[in-house]
Amino acid sequence: MQFNAEELAVIQERNLAGDIILERGYPADMSDMAIEKHASRGLGRRLLTAAVSGADANNFDLTVNKLMKGPDLYHFAKPVEAKEYEEVLKAGLVTLKDWIVGNVEVEKETASFEL
Asked: Which long-range contacts (CB under 8 A, 24 or more apart) does 69-74 make?
């Protein structure tokens, strides 16, 4: 996914980069040992990961920031899971587009109402 300059400006201005598009668990290509190791990491390791790779690197959720960085790779155990994810992802991207457009500053139009 690529954002145009206006969309990037809205994302930065409204501080939307950390917002989650899709919540995801551990990918299918992680072993049980790797999952356990990831789950039991200490605060120091999490802080180091956040400092080096960004705060959203500590989880597997799909965020606006991850989409801004380029292609996102996520593994599934079965093709049907990937197909279901693709449908949910497409809907999520449409929602994201509407969400960015909705966060554009409203034109400064003056209206008055009499009560």
From this structure: 74/24, 74/27
CA-CA distance, 75 to 90, in Å (whole number)?
A: 17
Closest C-alpha to 16, from 43, 45, 48, 56: 56
Q: How far apart are the first and last CA of the chain?
A: 47
Cα separation of 106 and 115, whole Å? 24
The 3-state DSSP class for residue 107 equals coil
Match 């919540």 to its residue by tokens. 23
Instruction: Give residue-wise pLDDT tens across range 33-89.
Output: 877 877 777 777 767 766 776 666 657 888 898 888 888 888 899 999 999 999 999
- Contact predicate 58/49, CB 8 Å: yes
Per the CB < 8 A criterion, the answer to whether 72 and 63 are in contact is no
Report the amino acid identity of residue 48. Answer: L
